[in-house]
Amino acid sequence: MGGATERSERCSGSEMFSAEVMQVRGEDPEYGGQPVHVPVLAGEVIHTLLAGRDPQELEGWFVDGTTGAGGHAQLLLQSCPRVRLLCTDQDPDALHLAGEKLGHFGDRVRLRQSRHSELCRVIRKERIGRLQGVLFDLGVCSLHLDRPERGFSFQQDGPLDMRMDPTRDRTAAEIVNHWDESDLADLFYYEGNETRARKIASAIVEARRRAPFLRTSALAQTISICLGNPGGKIHPATKTFQALRRAVNEEGEELLLGLQAAEYWLDVGGVLAVISFHSGEDRVVKRFVQSGVKESRWKTAMKKPLTPTREELRINRRARSAKLRGVVRVRNQGVES
Ligand SMILES: C[S@@+](CC[C@H](N)C(=O)[O-])C[C@H]1O[C@@H](n2cnc3c(N)ncnc32)[C@H](O)[C@@H]1O
What we know:
There is one protein chain. It contains 15 helices and seven strands. The protein is of the alpha/beta class. Helix 1 (2-16) packs across helix 3, helix 3 packs across helix 4 (71-79) and helix 13 (251-265) packs parallel to helix 14 (279-294).
């Protein structure tokens, strides 16, 4: 029964916005004819953010806390002609790209460089009051992975950096070259779900005695040699790189603060939608949502989290571990408007 409801919700979500979704997945002339980043679960995100409200009538402010290349933002603004959107991202390059894409929406859009941990302060400063919806599409953008100079890629060589906000103090090289072996192993295990964490940490510590790691290719190679490459679909360095990226950008801490900011600023009836790509990340969202539902601060917007359809996965392999959760705010905490 739940499954049937889920399927019909899902169907209307993706069908309602299918034309717009096709458009935002389209080619970007600014980026050599390739889309910079294909938004994941795009129709489903808009459907969730609406929570049954009429897109033509809906008014007020939304926040896209992970604006990236602006794909979801563009779709929301196109679908809801009276909605205004505060677009934040910690990465200035992403905001620049989003600005080019969203500029024609004029004063319906504000772009601000901000981390989730600063969101409360930014919303207050912008004087936009209570929100009708907040979106977090977590993790890394194709913009990061496809630009080797940002240091996220194990497939293309670059500096071992991985900072989404380039003003952060700590790079991946600092962690790899200075953390104790046991701390590295814990990081790879807990933040990357890497079961061979101890072996990798030991190989890194051994190799860095000879020379510090400065490039992504050197680290990827050390991990490949240490684990052997059985020719699987996933590169042996995938999980270690994910763990390092999460530590560099303090993704766990940031997420919790972002969720709290959303809860504080959402109006009754406003929606929080979160896409996660990592089981640890999804666990944090799930716990946050479940405790809020139990305490009647939220109600769920869907029975089960939504995942990409086979059709979406055919177009965008990077969507493969995406999970969308949505909740509706049901009680106000006395926010000044
Ligand atoms: C998956 S991308 C978002 C893509 C976007 N939804 C689109 O359609 O183009 C995630 C974005 O979130 C940003 N981000 C990640 N953690 C953040 C944080 N703590 N604060 C602000 N932005 C963050 C990244 O810089 C990246 O641009």
